[in-house]
Amino acid sequence: MHLLIVKTSSLGDVIHALPLVSDLARVRPQARIDWAVEEAFAAIPRLHPAVAQVIPVALRRWRRSLWRPATWGEVAQARARLREADYDLVLDCQGLVKSALVARWAQAPVAGPDRRSAREPLAARAYSRPVGLDRSLHAVARNRALGAAALGYSIDGEPPRFGLAAGSVPAALAAQVAAPYAVLLTNASRSSKLWPDERWTAVAAALAGRGWASLLFWGSDEEGERTRARAAGMQRATVMPRCSLPDIAAVLARAQVVVGLDTGLTHLAAALDVPTIGLFCDYDPRLVGLTGARCTSLGGVAVQPEVAQVLAALDRLLAS
């Protein structure tokens, strides 16, 4: 059986679909599993050993340059690559019009959330096998339920397994990870997700008291400036250079603990089975909270976790 997963973005959403791959590999061990994903996040499915091929798409970039002939050439190449693979079934986990479009490019039967459970109901019209999903389920559970319903297997009693295999830390970062360290993920895509700087400073001080340095990552130039300013007030804090996703994964996998906002990298740390504390300031963690054996989610909609809560959660995670 040749299967295609369509989950294009964002980083956290892509990570939430990884347990579906593990389920498919368990119940269909001879199946070949491919994944169509936004080019910026292609490194994540490649970290799962059961993913045979990753097909990058560039919907975000293409949308900004529809007038360029080169864009339509790239679109044609992506369509041809999906069509030539001869898939038996496509699983569109995204439930958006854009993901349904990519799924249809494969010219194979497509399973996806039905009209009542898709994030964009119009997308369901593209699915030959619509599946009703409980919208109150966590995103990981929804993805797994889609695969189970489409292929007729059970996930009852089977915990989610992300299956990631992080690589080695590159030599350029060896000095920063030579001693025990924690990772603080202080940036997020929306200002409503942010946590006050003075609380980060207090957490870094507590980590320094345990003998751990704090490593901070950033993405854009603007984030880099804010992160350097934030780290200037912290004890034993190091702002990391701009890193690729595989390099960040390698650093996260070796951390003593990760404390992060509701962002894709925090979900990545939890998926790597690192002790991880997720700080949710504007979203319900019951729907998109951290999933894993050694993680916890604090806060919620318009509820910012207190420093004392974070330190107590740290003690609980390390004790267990």
Structure, described:
With 320 residues, the chain is an alpha/beta fold. The protein is built from 13 helices and 12 strands. The strands form 2 sheets. A 6-stranded parallel β-sheet has the order 3-2-1-4-5-6, sandwiched between helices.
Can you describe this structure in just a few lines?
With 320 residues, this protein is of the alpha/beta class. It has helices at 11-16, 18-27, 43-46, 59-64, 69-84, 97-105, 139-151, 197-209, 221-231, 245-253, 264-271, 285-288, 307-319, and strands spanning 2-6, 32-38, 51-57, 89-92, 110-113, 129-131, 181-185, 213-216, 237-239, 257-261, 276-280, 295-299.
Keywords:
single chain, 320 residues, alpha/beta, six-stranded parallel sheet, 38% helix
In percent, how helical is the residue content?
Answer: 25-40%
Strand order of the largest sheet: 3-2-1-4-5-6
Distance between the termini: 41 Å
- Helix tally equals 13
Q: What is the β-strand count?
A: 12
Structural class: alpha/beta
Question: Poorly predicted ranges (pLDDT <50, ≥5 residues)?
Answer: none
Largest sheet: 6 strands, parallel
Rg over CA atoms: 20 Å
- Helices and strands, in order, run as EHHEHEHHEHEEHEHEHEHEHEHEH
- Estimate the mean pLDDT confidence: 97
